[in-house]
TrEMBL record:
It comes from Coemansia biformis. Belongs to the nucleosome assembly protein (NAP) family. This is NAP-domain-containing protein. The lineage of its organism: Eukaryota, Fungi, Fungi incertae sedis, Zoopagomycota, Kickxellomycotina. InterPro entries: NAP-like_sf, NAP_family. It comes from the Eukaryota.
Length: 251
């Protein structure tokens, strides 16, 4: 019996040592993730002249960005039918990165004249300098009378239609894609746009793009990054083959 107790105590001691080592490993893993994100952002900033050159070609292709958004396996599920009518007037998407810290950026949707709003640019700004606490700045959409696509999702008492958060926005079947521009956070969708859709736009347009991080896509599809990707109900390949969920329910 004493031998069993000694073996048990020895095992517990070994497990505690393993746990301490794993914590040290996780610190390095976190550092690696941060450094990879910073390096990715640095090179995205370097690509800016090429993206500007690319836009000269994109401008010749009708409904280029609408097609890209609708072919993205996650973003397509957030677009209502009337959203698509408005996004058909989208002329460009720009990701404007801070030269001082390229992980911080603005997502800019450039629109031509349209019947929905008077803005020619819809802007949402993200500052990730404080890790784990994104600072988000929303710019107001000036909707034309009777054309506010986000009106049905605005809650009584909500200021400026914001405060929904990523999870609620992605799961709310009544939420227009344009609600994201009022969302008090929205950093998960911003990441998909800035670091996946935007750099891979050409491949999404022709339908050959594959995400570098299927787990990230699955996590967003299931309602947020806090959900384990393995618990998600569908893979990105399945999502790509599925009809747009919101519109499918209305067709």
């Amino acid at each position: 019996m004493a031998t069993d107790n000694g073996t048990h105590a020895e095992l517990e001691g070994s497990l505690k040592e393993l746990d301490a080592i794993n914590k040290d490993i996780n610190v390095l893993v976190d550092q690696l993730v941060d450094e990879e994100a910073a390096l990715h952002a640095k090179y995205e900033l370097k690509k800016a002249p090429l993206y500007k050159q690319r836009q000269g070609v994109i401008a010749k292709i009708p409904k280029f960005w609408l097609t890209c958004l609708e072919k993205h396996p996650i973003i397509t599920s957030l677009i209502e039918m009337e959203d698509a009518d408005a996004i058909a007037h989208l002329e460009d998407i720009e990701i404007e990165r801070s030269a001082a810290n390229p992980i911080n950026y603005k997502v800019i949707f450039v629109f031509g004249e349209n019947p929905y709003f008077s803005n020619d640019r819809l802007v949402k700004e993200f500052d990730f300098s404080d890790k784990g606490n994104a600072k988000v700045t929303n710019h107001k959409i000036n909707w034309n009378e009777g054309k506010d696509l986000a009106a049905s999702a605005k809650k009584p008492g909500a200021e400026n239609g914001g405060g929904s958060g990523d999870d609620e926005f992605s799961e709310n079947e009544e939420a227009s894609f344009f609600c994201w521009f009022d969302d008090e956070n929205g950093s998960e969708l911003a990441d998909l746009i800035a670091n996946d859709l935007y750099p891979n736009a050409g491949m999404y347009f022709v339908g050959t793009a594959e995400s570098d991080d299927d787990d990230e896509l699955n996590g967003y599809a299931s309602g947020g990054s806090d959900v384990d990707a393995n618990e998600s109900g569908a893979s990105s390949e399945e999502a790509a083959e599925a009809p747009t969920s919101k519109r499918a329910k209305r067709e």
